[in-house]
Structures are given as C-alpha cells and as structure tokens.
Amino acid sequence: MTGAKIQKEIDITFQGIGQLGFERTYNNSNKSQGGSWFNSHQKSLRVLSSTKITRDKSSPYGSKSAACTSGWNELKAKITDAWALGTSAQYVGNTCQVVRNNVVVRNIPILPEGQNIEIHIKPGAIQLVRENGSILSFGLGAGDQYIELNGERGQLLAISNAAPVAWRYKAPNGDVENYNASGKLLSVTASNGMKQEFFYDATSGLLTRVKDSTNRELLFSYTGNQISSVTVDGNKTTSYTYNASGLITQVTRPDNATQIYHYEDARFPTALTGITDERNKRYATWTYDAQGRAISSEHAGGAEKTLLSFNADGSTTVTNSLNKKTIYRFDDIAGARRVVKVEGQPTANCAGANQDYTYTNEGWLSSAVPFSLAPHNKE
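^ thats the sequence. predicted structure below, dont judge the formating
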C-alpha cells in the first residue's frame, strides 16, 4: 500500500521435502536505486558499524602463575561465549593456557598491572539482505546481544567458535541461517531439519552451487556478475537475458518456453510495467505516478484491476475491481512505516469494515482489533 511494486516469479520448484528451488522477486521500494530483481539464494549479511570494547582483566596477582589460574577463574564468570564454558587455566612455559578436558582451547595474555589491555572491535550495526530485497536491521544492545529493529522476532548471534561460521540468524519461522565473516550465506537449515548448503567461486566470490539434504543441486553460470543460467538435474537449464540497465527482460525455460518482462515508462526505466507469457499474450500491466509509485495493476482484459491513490494526509486508498474502496492509514513505529488502521468503505452491496492495529515499542504487532461493521446504504 506504499506504492512499491513487488512481483514474485517461481522459476524452479521441486516436489518433496528437499525444498530446493529458485525464485525471483522484483522490488522497486528503494526509489533512489530504482527497481531490481532479487533471487531466493542471494541472502547476505552486512556490517555497517563497529563498537570498540575493552577486554576485561582480572585483579592483580603476585605471580604470573597465580594471575593465570586464579585470574582466569575470575574472568570466565564474565564470559558468555560457549568456548569458555567448563574450562580451567594452567601456566605452562610462560604461557597461560585455557583448557577443557585436557585440550588447550585458547592462550590468553598475562600483562603487567597498568598496561593497556588489547582492544577488539565488535560490530555495532548489522543488516541482513533478504531474498526479496528487503533489509532486516540489527543494533548492538545490552549484554552484547543484537536487537532486531524492524519489528520481526528473529535472533542474530555472533559466533566465535564455529569457523567458518561467524554469524547465525534464527528466523521467526524456525529457519537457521549461517554466514561467514564476509557476510556470505553458508547454509540454511529449515525447522524440519532439511538443509541447503551454498558454495562460492574462490576468485569471484559468486555463488556457483546450492545443494540440499537430498543431494539435489542448482548450478549457476554467469556473464560478468549476472546469472546467465541455472541448471538442475544435470541438463534442465533456465536462462536469463538482461537489458542495458541489468534488468531481466526474458526467461527461457528448459522446454524453450519464454516469458518477457517490460520496462516501458521512460520516466522510470527500471520500473516493471508488464509481463508477456509463453503464449505471447500480455497478461499483466502496471502503471506509476510522477513519484514512481505503482498506482494501477491489471491482468489481461482489465481483469482484477486495482487502483491506488495516495492522499494528502499520508493514507492510501485502494479501489478493487468491484469499485470497493479501502483506506489504509500509517504511522512511523520503530523506524518503519506500519499500518495502524484499515477502513473499508461501504458500498450499495457491501458493508464497510474497519480494523485497528497496535504495536510494541520494538514494532511487533501486539493487537488487531476485530472488524466492526459500518452502516451501508442498500437502495
């Protein structure tokens, strides 16, 4: 209802529990960058800022040996990372060794009293780029915990003892995503235990292969940095053609059927304006206002036509194919524009219906007041 044009296309899908597939999403919500296509396997993590944190130190001790053994017992109570659990320290050869089950897990420095402690950098602001181009933002909160700022209930963890995994995101749907220190997605494990693994070219860093728990694979080929084709089952290839702006203009399926994407608005050359299907029939058309907001959507012959108008008070009126109008009202909550009220306008044959939404301070939906019917004129 904000005027962003979102279009989801499914190119490859498998039946069964593997869940491996390939989907694309067109998203023009970022007006400064224009419209872009995103795919279901290009999730990534970005570190935007870092926070300096001084390492804890123990009380002073009379000897290096005491500083090691007693000092570590003092320090480890302050450490929440898994590597420190169940450990003790031993002073061997002028080195303080942290051990668990007789295995050295880390060496720690012993410094003279008053000497500066090593400073390390802890990322303070993190973004997760999702498969549809949307972004989840996280900030460093109390206790070194990352707080999700978009109103979702996902959990982001910094991982220090599971290389190459450096970050782990637990999504609200139960999926667990692992990322390396460069922000590349390494694996996704669904709530049903099925896993997808991601492999990248060592030189270009481009994704070359995705494998699931059933050993089915997607293989990616490129022209420059653009995906030129995706192959499954060894020989079933879906290929992609692009325009000068880097937008997909044609998809060719394994059976040679094609689908064409149109960008016909000279004001906004990256705005998706229509789709022509494999029968060479145009089945979808979209138009935009002077600000690049989508204002109409319809299928062939005007079917399912929907109109959007953006009102001076910041609300949006949506008119469906039956001429039923619904007004959406918004408010800025937790850094995002969220729907706070929906007003269904009555018509001659349909009652009006309203609904209110409230949110927590974090932006999580806390209540949706049940619909209330408004009077309507039935003449």
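The chain has three domains: 6-49+123-304, 56-117, 311-379.
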